[in-house]
Amino acid sequence: MERMHFLEKRVHKKMDDYHEYSFTNIQDAGLRTFFDLSQEFESIEDLYRICVIIIKAFFNLDSMLYVGLNGDSMKLVCTYENGLITTPDKILIPPIMVTSEAKESKGSYFIPVIGNKALVERLPATCCGEILGILQLKDSAGLSEKEKFFFQKFANRIGYALHNKVLMWKNINHLNFIRSLVKDIEHNIITPNIAFKLYIKRLRSTMKQCREIEKELGSILTATNMNDHQKLSQISTVYDKIKDSAEALEEQVKNIRKHYKNTSLFLETLLRRAHFEKGHYVLNRRSCNMKEDIILPQLEEYKAKIKDKHIEIRDEYTALDKEEPMQVDIGLLSQVYANLFSNAVKYTKEIKEDGQKFKYIAYGREVLKDYFFDGIHGIKYYVFSAGPHILKEERSNVFMEGYRGANVEKIPGTGQGLYFIKEIIRLHGGFVGYETVPGGNKFYFILPKSDEYIPIPSDDTPDVPA
């Protein structure tokens, strides 16, 4: 009951407050309209638009809305004249604008848009504490103090609505990421982990052979119907079997240790605490040699399957091209190559080249001069697989989540691999793509060769060249 009494007191206090405010009918209508529409439309972008439209429709004032950019500056997101602003250069720099009090400057009235103080810690790091944005009323010289007070209250309503929208979409994005992460774990960890079952089966088979050899040796040593020469001859034969079994056991243990190391890398990468806290993949960049530290270890994982399918491997790294270290997330980039090699093994087909039949996979890199910017080169990494080209109408969809083309036939898969690659490369500031080349298909990604220039392309960046 104490809580009921407390809330009842707050209700009566608000009744008194609004009586004291004595807002005009049009002001009340503006607040009610804002409240209704902010609940009706879900997107944050529509909330931006509603704010400036209501101010224009009810009060005939042009306004501009800014929101937090990086903790200490504001980005212009919407005006009545131009609508939603998507260009990144419209930035309002503090200390003039980010303030906890309303201020007049150069004919405009700047009002802080403040969120729910009790829930500030749940906001993204891009927000300036409890200040979510700034509302600018243009040509505000004729506003009375009472009208300014109303717009401060209106800005407060914007703050609470914006706060709720930010938290809602943060939670939605967080849940979507968790669902995507579960798919990535299934695709990159659980499915490849079945290899342990095969290794253990082979290990048990070899151990069974060792037991049989042990019994064979015991029967020879205890035999009474053989002379020493016969025993030595059979012991020599058993020795050869023991040697072969020991080598087989060493090979199985080597494979298990190698697969365990790779699986552990993937588990550590996908199950980082930071991913779950932030609601998206968080890169752990380290300097590495892409070929030695990432490509070759992943290729080694698939060598047995490549050999079983009689596929040739071609290294197309230019001999004179000295590879400089790259700052990347080794674990996530390793999974990118694991997906590329896995797909290459699945879909490589025999082709004719210069009158001869070939069946091969190739990997390499190219330097794309000034690809990102003047002086900022791109490094293009690719994996080629021989076989028929992907259908033209399907090429723009290959990096979509869950998409599988017509060429999959009965080949198992989830359609998650290429989408995972796209997301990881995007986080690294790069681009993914597919292109047809004589004899087969080339999947590639391009990373900036600079530790200082790390752009993050938007989701609508085209993946496949026209």
General description of the model:
With 466 residues, this protein is an alpha+beta fold. It folds into three domains: 2-169, 2-Layer Sandwich (Beta-Lactamase); 191-268; 275-448, Histidine kinase-like ATPase, C-terminal domain (Heat Shock Protein 90, 2-Layer Sandwich). It is 48% helix and 19% strand. The protein contains eleven helices and 16 strands. It has helices at 2-21, 25-40, 44-59, 145-190, 194-222, 228-270, 273-278, 290-301, 303-308, 330-347, 417-427, and strands spanning 63-68, 74-79, 83-84, 91-92, 103-105, 108-114, 131-137, 286-288, 312-315, 326-328, 351-353, 356-358, 360-373, 376-386, 431-437, 440-448. The strands form four sheets. Strands 1, 2, 3, 4, 5, 6 and 7 form a seven-stranded antiparallel beta sheet that branches. A five-stranded mixed beta sheet has the order 9-13-14-16-15. A two-stranded antiparallel sheet has the order 8-10. Strand 2 and strand 3 form a beta hairpin. Helix 8 crosses helix 10 (330-347). The protein is elongated. Residues 88-97 and 458-466 have low confidence and may be disordered.
